[in-house]
Amino acid sequence: MKLKTLVSTLVSVFLIGSQVAYADKWSDQFPHIAGTGDVPGMCSYEETSKKDYSGRTLTINTHAIPVMGEPTALHAEQFEKLTGAKVEVTHTPAGDLYSKAMVPFQAGQAPYDIVFGFSNFINEWKRYLAPVPQKYVDQMDGVSASHMAIASWDGVMYQYPVDGDRHYLKYRKDVIDNPEMQAKYKADTGKELRVPQTWKEYGEMAAYFNGWDWDGDGEPEYGSAEVMKKDDLMYAAFYSRSAAYSKNPSTPGGFFFDLDTMEPLINNPGFVEALGDWVEAVKYVPPGGINFGLGDEIASFGGGQTLFSFSWDDAFVAAMQDDSPIKDQVGAAQLPGADHVWNRETNSWDEGFNQAPYFVWGWAVGVAEKSKNQDMAFDYLCFFANGANHQADIGIGRFGVNPFMEEDFKADVWTAIGWDKGVAEEYVKTLADMEDSKNRVFPLRVPGTFQFNSALATGAAKALAGQLSPQEALDEVATEWKAILERVGADNVREAYAVGVKMEDNQL
Amino acid sequence: MNFKHKYVFLLPGLIVLIGILIFPVIFTVRLSLSGWNSFNPELDFVGIKNYIRLFTEDPRFWQSFFRLSFLAVTTVFLQYVIGFALAHMVWKDIKFKRFFRVLFLIPMMTTPVIMTVIWRTFFHESLGPLNDFLGLFGLQPQWLSSPGLAKVSIIVVEVWQWTSFMFLLMLAGLLSLPKEPFLAAAIDGASPFKKFIYVTFPLMAPISIGAIIIRLIEASKIMDTVFVLTSGGPGTSTETSSFYIFIKGLREFQMGYAATMSFTYLIIMIISLTIIAKVLTKVLMRE
User: Fold this and answer.
1) Residues A350, A250: contact at Cβ < 8 Å?
2) A105 partner at 20 to 30 Å CA-CA among A76, B133, B211, B215?
3) In this model, does residue A438 exceed pLDDT 70?
4) Would you call A465 and B143 a contact, using CB atoms and an 8 Å cutoff?
């Protein structure tokens, strides 16, 4: 018995000791993973160090530093040290990522082994990308089902999951949950100050808290920071605002188009009401807020300038970093809903609360079909998204790496990096609820995606600038969408759109 | 020398000319006759379909062209007036003449995109120093959020960046003027104003025409300022032709249609600038 106990103890000590030694060995060399040490897996630091890519060069085209560009460069440096490979990283502005890859792709070339982009590129990029080999897919059992679907097209994975994105509401807990503020708001408006349940409530609260110093820092604060600048991203903010008014669970078969007729739905009363709300929002954004891109929105909300924001995770994670003036003072919630939703079949409003999470496109990455280094490229991506790197990356707001693993939806992952328990629990509940929702909107991923989104951005921008009314602006967009359908071919678009509709109608 | 050898020496230059000028233009024309886009990357042949679309279904292109004309003419006019005035000032024997001559050249030596980023920070309505200062007087102009002021912001940036170029050309011109007409004017007792109107300005006419045409050609390509400062917004209020062509070509990947717009724009600019040059010559150089 004593011998058995001794052996067990020795074995345990050896295992624990080797585990400690295992973790320390890599986190000593790579401080980035000091929080977790190396996490065992197919592409752990340990396993990657066994690869020998000496004498070979891997080329990557990624976004500018910091968002996605910084982790790409960091993991490239780590991969070089572990494998002996040479990794050349090119940084490209977001608006040029598509063309920088597409131009050589269409010329039959692959100057980059790995190309970063957005997940809604997939329909047009997939013919130029190598499918992710099954051995990598097999070890992705931790990736959430929705993000496996986003990275794939009709069951084939073309984009390696490195990021997960959705839009959700961010708010200042120190205001919304503050009894004094609640009493003041109630006294002045007769309404409850709470996490806004609808976009109308959002607007009322944002307008109330606009233009005065409600946090005592000597500077006026404002109602909301939103991505309104007419570039690649503002159309996503508009879809977030429209989903609750237009994504009707009782009328499946399309959110952007009626799948049967391919009639654009973009100018229906649901979208028009959402754009009307957005035009009102111009009154409660900070000065110059109509020109805010994503970076401005992150800086504005993350810096404590506004009560609300909604967009990608980045602003929230930035607000929760140690150097943020509002750390642990922010809360997360699902995007506001609406008190009615448009029913295109009855041509009337369905009264009652409706909510629809928007799984907006996120960062995506693929390996060029013509790359001569596919093995090395997939190993790099697997290493990028390994357990240790992922855990470290999601805690750094500016990295742009957001939760997409089931493990990410556990509060202790976030409390381990210093988040307040209450904030962490609310955050993961928000993300998990979105995953569980059956009334979701996914990004438009059809031939001509950029034309559709560009037309929408122009129309919405005209309405925000007061050049057109919301109805006029969206009528113009619908006309342009019809012209695009005619050029691209309605059947081509329908075939691709059907894939997205299956996801939205919970058939995938 | 053998006659054939002359062509051998001309060949390298010809190859470069064909490679960087003639071939791209011919290819652009060919591309404009195709329907090349992101989902149909083929150099097929669609005839003049793109041109019909441009002339009958795309008012946005023409609106951007008129907007561009307004911005180009306004900026070049201001650059000419300010550049000429500064050149005239340092042409004389003033104190620190050399210092001013270098100072006025600095904007032109900076990288336009980087300077526009700095200007964008400057004009930022909530975080920029300009509104911080104007706020002391109760003013908070929406420099980049109001359609009118956004155009003013672009004009300010362009004038700041390129007045130096006009200044340089005008100063070179002034320094090369003969002294005799000025001596004659001085003997006749002409005032400085009359000297400028009747001597300096007419003598500077050929240089002025050249400088204005060169700047108009450059101003008509305005892109980086719009791209960085406003992205063509708010709405489409600052969208110029080149920015719109960029969106169609490199954002939406409608390469065939973008080629159509580019070629049409080239033809319009050649015709416009030829007419402008003739008009300026007639007006400024009349006897």
Assistant:
1) yes
2) A76
3) yes
4) no
Domains and CATH numbers, chain B: 60-249+260-284 (1.10.3720.10)
**A44 class by beta-carbon count within 10 Å (0-12 exposed, 13-18 middle, 19+ buried):** buried
Provide the pLDDT confidence category of residue A9 given band limits of 50, 70 and 90. Answer: very low
pLDDT in tens, B224-283: 999 999 989 899 999 999 999 999 998 888 999 999 999 999 999 999 999 999 999 888
**Closest to A139 (Cα-Cα) out of A308, A307, A390:** A390
Is-contact B215 B162, C-beta < 8 A? yes
d(CA A300, CA A316): 11
Residues in chain A within 8 Å Cβ distance of B245: none
Q: Which CATH architecture has domain A32-164+361-404?
A: 3-Layer(aba) Sandwich (3.40)
pLDDT one-digit tens code per residue, A215-231: 998 889 999 999 998 87
Is A72 in contact with A112 (CB distance < 8 Å)? no
A168-358+439-504: CATH class:
alpha beta
ipTM, two decimals, is 0.81
Residue B41 forms contact with A (CB below 8 Å):
yes
For testing the chain B interface, which of A230, A301, A446 should be mutated: the one with the most B CBs within 10 Å?
A: A230
Distances (CA, A) of A196 to A188, A212, A320, A331: 17, 20, 21, 12
Domain edges within chain A: 32-164+361-404, 168-358+439-504
pLDDT digits (tens, 9 = 90+) for A51-101: 999 999 999 999 998 889 999 999 999 999 999 999 999 999 887 888 899
Contact A286 B126 (CB under 8 A): yes
Rounded Cα distance between A227 and A205, Å, is 19
Identity of the residue in A123, A230, A454 whose CB atom sits nearest the CB atom of B252: A454
Token pair 């992922």 is found at: A390
Classify residue A268 by its DSSP letter: S
Phi, psi angles (nearest 5°) of residue A92: -130, 140
Same fold, A32-164+361-404 and A168-358+439-504: yes
Neighbours of A187 (CB within 10 A): 8
Cβ contacts (< 8 Å) between A232 and chain B: which residues? 251
Could you report the per-residue pLDDT of B84-121, keeping only the tens digit for each?
A: 999 998 887 778 888 888 888 889 889 999 999 999 99
Nearest CA in chain B to A286: B126
The set of residues, in sequence order, having a beta carbon less than 8 Å from that of A58 and lying 6+ positions away, is A76, A79, A85, A86, A87, A88, A113, A114, A373, A376, A377, A380
Residues on chain B touching A448 (C-beta within 8 angstroms): 37-39, 252
Band of the pLDDT at A10, cuts 50, 70, 90? very low
CB contact under 8 A, B39 and A124: yes
Q: How remote is the C-alpha of B238 from its chain's centroid?
A: 15
